[in-house]
């Protein structure tokens, strides 16, 4: 049975499918970021996904089981610039389905939703050290557009 890509219109109704995938992406990124989740992360994430009227959330389903997801939203003139683009927030595929073209199917469906909405550009961020993610994005045609940097301040080294 082929993978089906399903659009999620009601986050609450699909939450039991979505929450484990969100947990999976957070677990995947934890060794790269070192940033643990808040105790109420799931409630916050659910509220975030539900609040966006311009949001896109798609699930990859294999034999009735959600095995991946992509989410993002459309940004129309979000700052001082006249611009419209889609922001891809997350994409994740469970271990058992990686390398089986599921991520590419999710991305293609996300891009088609954008095209249908008249969007011609997709933007995203990649966690530093996520080599699997970087290779995927490069292979699917994404190119670097900016660099995000950080600096830890306020902590004195022990002497």
Question: Can you describe this structure?
Answer:
The chain has 159 residues and is α+β, with helices and mostly antiparallel strands. It has one domain (4-139): Aminopeptidase (3-Layer(aba) Sandwich), CATH 3.40.630.30. It is 34% helix and 23% strand. It has four helices and five strands, in the order βααβββαβα. The protein has a five-stranded mixed β-sheet with strand order 1-2-3-4-5, with helices on both faces. The longest helix is centred in the N-terminal third of the chain and has 19 residues, at 15-33. The protein starts with a strand and ends in a 20-residue tail after the last helix. The mean pLDDT is 92.
What is the distance, rounded to the nearest whole angstrom, between the alpha carbons of the first and last residues? 61 Å
- For the record, the CATH class is Alpha Beta
- Structural category is alpha+beta
The shape, in one word, is globular
State which percent range the strand residues make up: 15-25%
Would you summarize the structure shown here?
This protein is α+β, with helices and mostly antiparallel strands. The chain has helices at residues 15-33, 41-51, 102-116, 131-139, and strands at residues 4-7, 55-62, 65-76, 84-93, 122-123. It has one domain: Aminopeptidase (3-Layer(aba) Sandwich), CATH 3.40.630.
Name its key features:
alpha+beta; single chain; 159 residues; Aminopeptidase; 5-stranded mixed β-sheet; 4 helices
């Amino acid at each position: 049975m082929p993978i089906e890509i399903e659009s999620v219109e009601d986050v609450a109704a699909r939450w039991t499918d979505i929450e484990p995938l969100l947990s999976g992406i957070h677990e995947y990124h934890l060794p790269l970021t070192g940033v643990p989740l808040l105790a109420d992360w799931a409630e916050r994430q659910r509220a975030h996904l539900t609040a966006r009227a311009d949001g896109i959330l798609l699930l990859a389903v294999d034999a009735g089981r959600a095995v991946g997801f992509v989410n993002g939203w459309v940004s129309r003139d979000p700052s001082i610039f006249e611009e419209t683009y889609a922001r891809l927030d997350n994409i994740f595929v469970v271990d058992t389905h990686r390398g089986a073209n599921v991520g590419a199917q999710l991305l293609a469906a996300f891009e088609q939703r954008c095209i249908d909405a008249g969007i011609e550009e997709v933007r995203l961020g990649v966690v530093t050290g996520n080599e699997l993610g970087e290779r995927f994005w490069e292979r699917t045609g994404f190119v670097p557009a900016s660099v995000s940097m950080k600096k830890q301040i306020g902590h004195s080294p022990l002497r």
